[in-house]
Amino acid sequence: MISIDSGGGFVSIGDFSISWGNSEDPFFADERLEGYFAINLGATSLELGAIDHERPGVYITKYKDGDVLSITPLLQF
C-alpha cells in the first residue's frame, strides 16, 4: 500500500512499513504537530520525532492492539 500527500505518507509491504508526517504550524491548526519519521515492523517502531512522546528524539515504541505498550528512548533533543 502506498499513500502520499502534502501532509506525509505511508508505504507498506506486509508487516513492514515506513511512515512520515510533516510538521504543522499552529497558525493553521489548533495545536503544533511536530514532524516525524517511523520505520515499523509488526507492532514495533523506530520513531524519529515526537509521535507519542513529550519531546522530539529517537525512540523504540511497541504497540499492542493499537495502544502504546512501551517506549524506549534512545536519544532525546
Please describe what this structure looks like.
With about 80 residues, this protein is mainly beta. It has no helices and seven strands. The protein has a seven-stranded antiparallel beta sheet, with no helix packed on it. The chain is globular and about 35 Å long. The mean pLDDT is about 85.
List its salient traits.
single chain, 7 strands, seven-stranded antiparallel sheet, 77 residues, globular, mainly beta
Taking the sheet with the most strands, its summary is: 7 strands, antiparallel
Major beta sheet, strand line-up? 1-2-3-4-5-6-7
Provide the residue-averaged pLDDT.
87
User: In percent terms, what proportion of residues is strand?
Assistant: over 45%
Q: What is the assembly state of the chains in this entry?
A: single chain
**What is the number of E strands?**
7
- Label the structural class: mainly beta
* Alpha carbon gap, first and last residue: 32 Å
- State Rg: 13 Å
The 3D shape can be described as globular
Order of helices and strands: EEEEEEE
Helix content estimate? under 10%
What are the segments in which pLDDT stays under 50 over at least 5 consecutive residues? none
Tally of contiguous helical segments? 0
Write the layout of secondary structure elements.
Elements: E1 2-5, E2 8-13, E3 16-21, E4 36-41, E5 44-49, E6 57-64, E7 67-76
Antiparallel strand pairs: 1-2, 2-3, 3-4, 4-5, 5-6, 6-7
Brief sketch in words of this structure:
The protein is an all-beta fold. The protein contains no helices and 7 strands.
